[in-house]
């Protein structure tokens, strides 16, 4: 296996980690107006992700940096073609981060309500746009060759195909369900019961959308890998709904995480196994001389990839170990007593 393919798989792993971990952050943020019936409830909801949300975003930074170094043509084409969508997405992430820090800076209900709204919006926008972006990549985009690389020619509207929009709705619903299950795992009492109920409704509603999206993904590229990964995502989603229904919070959370992981892997698998690939950005308007950006023609030099591989062998285990340690330290449930004690 050559290094360019190894780095395609590593970047896929980094994005899977990002969507699984930051996905429940987005879901928790979106659940705030539904589950946060009192200020104590809202503080418990936010405190559930308070120690880890910024650590989860580390995977986005690592994935973006790896993409830039390992596949500069992919990075340049995607970031130029997706510029407006990514700008809105990043603004959402910034607004959400600022809201977490600012909402408790003034003892005013109106002040906190404004920042809570920012948390909801800053969580929903990335949850939607990430799905749109990756579904667009898997489906293919209008491109033309440009200075040894590629240039997207369709503009922002080319991202808003029915398949891409369905992908965005799927990630929006999956992340909401993932976050609600996480809250059921991290809280107790009445808030826990309401989180269970929200997770059940979100999993049921998302299940219909997700099955249609995964079936469409398989129809576009019915290779064994895509079929298996899509089927695993669907099975994990059903399992999560069943486990949530019987109150097995840990298993339900593991299964929603598996659902997100398998769904993202199905999209990367579609790129990997598409005829003429493996691709990083297939063209929806291929010609005899240009079919899009492949793993081979978009990658950096072998020497660059070799240096990056040695760095990854050292750094990735450290990142994984530190993140596992952080989750272990902050594993306890967020109770009413703990929040009230912290207020005093």
Automatic annotation (TrEMBL):
Membrane topology: Multi-pass membrane protein
InterPro entries listed in its UniProt record: Cyt-d_oxidase_su2 (IPR003317)
The keyword RNA-binding appears for this protein: no
Entry's Gene Ontology BP terms: aerobic electron transport chain
GO CC annotation terms, alphabetical: cytochrome complex; plasma membrane
Keyword Electron transport: yes
GO MF terms held by the record: electron transfer activity; metal ion binding; oxidoreductase activity, acting on diphenols and related substances as donors, oxygen as acceptor
Cell compartments where the protein resides: Cell membrane
Membrane-traversing stretches: 6-24, 74-95, 115-140, 160-185, 197-219, 225-243, 252-272, 307-330
Keywords recorded for this protein, A-Z: Cell membrane, Electron transport, Heme, Iron, Membrane, Metal-binding, Transmembrane, Transmembrane helix, Transport
Pfam families: Cyt_bd_oxida_II (PF02322)
Family label: Belongs to the cytochrome ubiquinol oxidase subunit 2 family.
Protein name: Cytochrome d ubiquinol oxidase subunit II
Gene from which the chain derives: cydB
